[in-house]
Amino acid sequence: MDSFCLKKKPLVAALGAALAGTALSVSAADWSDTSLSWRYGTKFAEPFDNTATGGRVNITKNILALTHASGYKYGTNFFNVDLLMSDGKDPANCAGTFNCTGQAQEAYIVYRNTVDLGKVTGSDYKMGPVRGWGGTFGFDYNAKTDAGYNSKKRMLVAGPTAMFDVPGFLNVSVLELWESNAPCTTFPPAAVGFPASGCVNRYSYKTHPMLTGAWGIPLGGSGFSFEGFMNLIASKGTNEFGGPTKQETNFDGQIMYDMSRIGLGSKGTFKLGFEYQYWKNKFGNDASGPAGPGAFAKTPMIRAEYHF
After folding, report:
1. What gap in Å lies between CA 145 and CA 152, rounded to an integer?
2. Going by C-beta distance under 8 Å and a sequence separation of 6 or more, which residues neighbour residue 20?
3. Which residues are 257's β-sheet partners?
4. Does 229 reside within a domain?
5. CATH number where 84 lies
6. Radius of gyration of the chain measured on its C-alpha atoms
7. Residue 234's closest CA among 207, 252, 215, 213?
8. What residue ranges in 219-262 does DSSP mark as E strands?
9. Is residue 195 domain-resident?
10. pLDDT in tens, 216-225
11. Assigned domain for 1 exists
12. DSSP string of 248-260?
């Protein structure tokens, strides 16, 4: 099945690279925060994964994450790797429409480096609510074992960033995206539009922009904080099969509580909270088109974090 499926080996390699990158970043950091987290939800969704009556299939996922943020002389680093584990409603393999087995697994890595113009030049660029300006570059990388698509996304990003003067942080960037993918399927290829081999050669989408924001803002002295990100991603032209793509909206925010307030650990060590993701036209697939309501996820989650 090598022509159809991603093996688990790329997932292990991706995690190994993530851990190595984090270790190097810590050794050169002025400050750093590293955490392990778990989140759980029962209403995840995937494009084209719909019920016989056309409704969205609700998928349960457990997500383990390693997250690292740090500051160095000229800016900041952010690094995150998610290990996403689905239930059987997002199967790993399908020999036919009604002969699916296993549970999909995915590794998704994000790295961003923001160079602070003020730190590089030694000048103050504060302007109204903006405390500074910079440039951000980085990449996204994923590997997934699932029946229908087996995503192997590769994406480079670069663009300007405004850093707002708020408690905590709020960064807003306009990034150019250079994205490609090379999916495979274990469904009968003719049934889902793939070539006879079941795999698509690596395909590059049209270069396209993304307006993105990331924040972590304490809510006064309450012990609560509002954290998350939001991406508004323009259409990336035609997809691997010649079809159109749509503008994508992905909001993921959480309210977290510092458990030291009730005597569990030191300040900032343990956090517990509620997370919500709103993801319309997931991966650029039209939720009002062939991808169906599976391309429109509205997912509440619980989230727990350990910082060290």
Report:
1. 9
2. none
3. 224, 272
4. yes
5. 2.40.230.20
6. 20
7. 207
8. 224-233, 248-258
9. yes
10. 999 999 999 9
11. no
12. EEEEEEEEEEEGG
Q: How many domains does one find in the chain?
A: 1
- Domain membership of residue 70 (yes or no) is yes
| 8 A C-beta contact, residue 296 and residue 270 | no
Is residue 214 a contact partner of residue 253, using CB atoms and an 8 Å limit?
no
Token reading at 163: 């850093």
The predicted-structure confidence for 17-71, as pLDDT tens digits, reads as follows: 555 555 555 556 799 999 999 999 999 999 988 887 888 999 999 999 999 999 9
Between CA 94 and CA 132 the distance in angstroms is: 51
Longest Cα–Cα distance in the chain: 63
Structure tokens at 184: 């495979």
Kindly report, residue by residue over 150-199, the tens digit of the pLDDT.
Answer: 999 999 999 999 999 999 999 999 999 999 999 998 877 777 778 888 89
Residue type, 234: A
What is the distance between the terminal CA atoms of the chain, rounded to a whole angstrom? 41
* pLDDT confidence of residue 8: 46
Q: Which of 56, 63, 51 is nearest to 87 (CA)?
A: 63
